[in-house]
Amino acid sequence: MLKIQNVTGGYSNNPILRNIDIEVQNGDFFALLGPNGSGKTTLFKLITGQLPIQKGKVLLSGKDISSYSKLEKAKKIAVLSQDTSVSFDYTVEEIVSLGRYPHQKGILKNLSKKDWHIIEEVMELTKVTEFRHTQFRKISGGEKQRVLLAKALAQEPELLLLDEPTNHLDIKHTFQLLDLLKKRQEEKGLTIFSILHDLNVASLYADRFALLYNGSLLKVGDASLLKEVDTLNKIYQVQIHVQPHPTVPKPQLLLAPSLPNSTHSTFFKGNYKINNNEQFVHVQFQKPLRTISNGMVGNGIQWIKDYCIFSCKQYSTIPPEEEIQTIMEQYSITPEQTVATIVEGNIGDVVEVEREIEDTKILIIVTPTKMNEKIRGFNMMVFMDGYFNEGALVNSLLIATKEKMKAMQQFGMDEANETNEALYLAVTQKGDKSVTQRAVEATLREMVQLAVKQVYQKEKVVV
Ligand SMILES: Nc1ncnc2c1ncn2[C@@H]1O[C@H](COP(=O)(O)OP(=O)(O)OP(=O)(O)O)[C@@H](O)[C@H]1O
């Protein structure tokens, strides 16, 4: 549909953009990304003919774009730029009807029945019908944006060029506008080429992406381009973390403030305290840790400061969340960053095991759940002072579980024991990213074994 071939160009003799090659396929939603000043608007202007191309060419449906007449071009391309100013004092409806101009026939260029049908349809789609008779200058920036989109759609273009179309829009209208464009793309095969600033929004809607940096094309590709964190960190100069969207199969970026980040905290020494008796264990840290857990409250992956296990004689019919809330109130534990589980039986004394491997400190806190003075299960909290990605977190969780089972079997307990056991694994996310997972794994195994053994020794269980 649109082929940008080795294009160089810019303002007078200053070629802002150099050797740009981009191909936009028929029916694609293509997002042009890049930081401020990277040349996105300049490229836009080179395509629309507002700026002369110094080298290379732009092809539209295989034909040099400069060989199209103005009217021919207007039948194929509609442009929605950032400039929402309009020279005359038109009403909204008049502006939208201007979009039909390239299709009007005859000398008088009157609007036909079909033209009116399309005008009504696009005004409905963009939700501007209600102010159709209002002067364009009297509506808000976001409403103007929608009216100009209606005008662009009234043109019935094959290709829609958009320069940051969501600039003036709030979240609701941003998503409404992009939903509308996506529908138009899917139902009518509209090809969309849009400058977008918000990488997460771009990820949700676009099929292909181009990344401009300093006037050069850095990357072209599908959504996996947004997973190239090192490239994005470099060109946007912010700390970016990528993660999958929980319901849409697209990546989403999380940004971190560039505040001083201490390499390693000394979080084990004096930075946590343990309260423990037969009814509960409460491990409290001064700062939250990224935690993966099977808690009844605060489960999944969350930032947690308070790690609780409460005991009960027998599970009641009250939902555990409510029961936990009551218990937490009783002990004055705030619920904001808390993970908590209720287990059946009494809670035994805690055992703490601490190690350091390759600069990563690991602390394991284990408590047994007991019934009739017999150990029925083990609750385990693993704290690690280092950076762990999600794969490493899941892996560590698996190792801790497996090793606990093995240790329990060595002491004659079988896994058929149907008690609820708490497993919390927490990391500080500080320090060097390249913790050698293998070394951590081996240490973790040894620590879990030791912790379980010490619980048996403490509880004076004879094997
Ligand atoms: N009219 C102009 N005359 C000369 N240079 C210009 C002109 N407009 C922009 N530039 C320069 O061209 C470079 C690219 O600007 P451009 O507007 O294309 O960037 P952009 O990627 O669209 O940025 P933004 O995200 O801020 O809109 C900038 O260095 C800018 O200073």
UniProtKB/TrEMBL annotation:
Pfam assignment, any one: CbiZ
Annotated Gene3D superfamilies: P-loop containing nucleotide triphosphate hydrolases
Record-annotated ABC transporter domain positions: 2-239
Keyword line: ATP-binding, Nucleotide-binding, Translocase, Transport
Alphabetical list of InterPro entries matching this protein: AAA+_ATPase (IPR003593), ABC_transporter-like_ATP-bd (IPR003439), ABC_transporter-like_CS (IPR017871), AdoCbi_amidolase (IPR002808), P-loop_NTPase (IPR027417)
Coiled coil: none
Source organism of the structure: Ureibacillus thermosphaericus
Molecular functions per Gene Ontology: ATP binding; ATP hydrolysis activity
Protein's recorded name: Iron complex transport system ATP-binding protein
Domain of life: Bacteria
CDD domains linked to this entry: ABC_Iron-Siderophores_B12_Hemin
